[in-house]
Amino acid sequence: MKNKQVIIDSLPEGKLVESNYKLVDSEIPEVGSDEVLVKTISFAITAGTRAGLQGSASYAGAPTTGIVMNCTGIGEIIQSTNEDYNIGRNVLTQTGWQEYSVQKTQSLTLLREGVDPSLYLGPLGINGLTAYFGLLEIGQPQSGETVMISAAAGSVGHMVGQIAKIQGCKVVGVCGSDGKCKKLIEDLGFDAAVNYKDANFRQNLKEATPDGVDVYFDNTGGMILGSALFRLNSGGRIACCGVVSQYDTSTPEPGPKGIPGLLVNKSIRMQGFLVFDFAEQYENATDDLLTWIDSGQLKVLTDELEGIENAPRGFVDLLAGGNIGTRIVNI
Amino acid sequence: MKNKQVIIDSLPEGKLVESNYKLVDSEIPEVGSDEVLVKTISFAITAGTRAGLQGSASYAGAPTTGIVMNCTGIGEIIQSTNEDYNIGRNVLTQTGWQEYSVQKTQSLTLLREGVDPSLYLGPLGINGLTAYFGLLEIGQPQSGETVMISAAAGSVGHMVGQIAKIQGCKVVGVCGSDGKCKKLIEDLGFDAAVNYKDANFRQNLKEATPDGVDVYFDNTGGMILGSALFRLNSGGRIACCGVVSQYDTSTPEPGPKGIPGLLVNKSIRMQGFLVFDFAEQYENATDDLLTWIDSGQLKVLTDELEGIENAPRGFVDLLAGGNIGTRIVNI
């Protein structure tokens, strides 16, 4: 039995390309004490992992070649040396882009039984928890306020908007195509959506936010962050979740003009966060998210590919804005 | 009786110059209902007022010529139509750069009797309150943490450092001359001070902050903010107080690189504020500040000029970093 893996063959220079990756067959490692062997069912491709492929070490680790591309996935335990983690149980873990992985038991989250496992790559996984804590704990929206979201059709963004609607907010999404805008409004209940590639983006954003913006959930940084700063009201909050506009390049832009001047003038709070900062509250958040899914208030958008060999293409396309919702690769 | 005034004669193009101002003699206006006539004793020159001289409207108002230059000052009531504000009382108010001004009573702060009035232009005035709330409410330093301050020898910065020492923090100042560095360490008890004009600034800052930075009190923005971002620890806080590096130019720089990427990676909170946000807590803050002054823990640095005609020169020089402590003009 061989382990099909996608490894990082070279680091990107400029934009990521498929040939930065290589498909290999390797041996499956031995399972040691307090470890399990996980057979991957599916994994999620998320923009944030691009940050680990260049520059200095970030939360995603230092850039290295010759290792399996990292990601979060779900899988089934097929060997175990710890009786709390039985064969046949489904888990959420850092599977990486590979068919099999040996995992320390402390790195596993056991999936709740009776819950669709695929939900753990979307609303109940890192994406959903990121949307939940970033909006509620960092953005702290109040009912009636306006919430603006960039990369609003992405794996995190499309959930942020729906959670903001549940809080009674007016929700305005920013995304990269008219098709995505339509879907956000018609399928997910956003109040407005604006295409940042439109030549009149700034004017359209202004018209979509007649009362200004109270909370901006930033997945992109760059020009859209710069535009948001001008729409923010006094006392506004920016939840800094990611910087997708800056990941896929060797020459990131400088920060937007008006930082920190506009923060001072408008008493704006701009706060970065990692979902791991809230690890102690995951269980409560999962309860809320499941309640909203069951009631139909939180709709799950996924964008699925079949076969591990398609992961590199799927990632390159995602960085170019090709996905709607959470991009999942089924093995 | 004439009123000597300094008015804004033209808006600066590029750097502010003395000839942007004009000294005029004008009539003293009538005192209306609920108003007083204030004879200016002294006023403070602060970098923040430069923001009101160009660009779009800010908290300092829209740029306009033909008006008296604004500033905070102390003065004596010499006519009054409200018995709660008697002739002879000293007040803090927006005197502007002029000898006499008519003020609405609601814009006056009566000075506490028995307290040196000049303290109200420093530690008990806008500068001291800005230092107090910006550090304690926005920065939230904990004992043992490292606090870094830019424009550390300025009217706000020199007080921030001393208040941080009172909180049990390690304090590192950034300023623009070796003489200022020496004064911060020897006279005010800073643990270290670094000259940003030194070619080895970044290396020197690194050596002065071996445990990283937990709170950065930013009076400058620009390059120093960019350097601070790299020294900040996870969970660090930036209190955005002012942008003096960006005021005295028609072409402000873009924001530092790494915004918002570094904020995300290190879960950093960056928060702008205006002292007026804390108006309800001024009395308590004044009690604390007076206690620290009386005990000798908070030393007051002032840098005084004589004569209203010297205000323009004093302001141009302050924007070039010429002052240590609060620059005050005595009339």
Oligomeric status: homodimer
> What is the second-level CATH architecture of the largest domain in chain A?
Alpha-Beta Complex
Portion of residues in beta strands of chain A equals 25-35%
The end-to-end span of chain A amounts to 16 Å
What's the CATH H-level homologous superfamily of the largest domain in chain A? Medium-chain alcohol dehydrogenases, catalytic domain
Radius of gyration over C-alpha positions of chain A, nearest whole angstrom: 20 Å
CATH topology of the largest domain in chain A: Quinone Oxidoreductase, Chain A, domain 1
Encode the helix/strand succession of chain A as letters: EEEEEEEHEHEHEHEHEHHEHEHE
What's the total helix number of chain A? Answer: 9
Largest interface: A-B, 36 and 36 residues
How many domain regions of chain A?
A: 2
* Low-pLDDT stretches of chain A: none
Which class do the helix and strand fractions of chain A yield? alpha/beta
Helix content, binned percent of chain A:
10-25%
Mean pLDDT of chain A comes to: 94
Written account of the structure:
2 copies of one chain form a homodimer. With 331 residues, the first copy, chain A, is an alpha/beta fold. Chain A folds into 2 domains: 3-122 and 301-330, Quinone Oxidoreductase, Chain A, domain 1; 129-276, NAD(P)-binding Rossmann-like Domain (Rossmann fold). Chain A contains 9 helices and 15 strands. Chain A has helices spanning 126-139, 157-166, 178-186, 201-208, 222-231, 244-247, 261-265, 282-294, 311-319, and strands at 3-8, 21-26, 35-45, 73-80, 90-93, 100-104, 109-110, 146-149, 170-175, 192-195, 213-218, 232-240, 269-272, 302-306, 326-330. In chain A, strands 3, 4, 5, 6, 7, 14 and 15 form a 7-stranded mixed β-sheet that branches. In chain A, helix 1 (126-139) crosses helix 2 (157-166). The longest helix of chain A is centred in the middle third of the chain and has 14 residues, at 126-139.
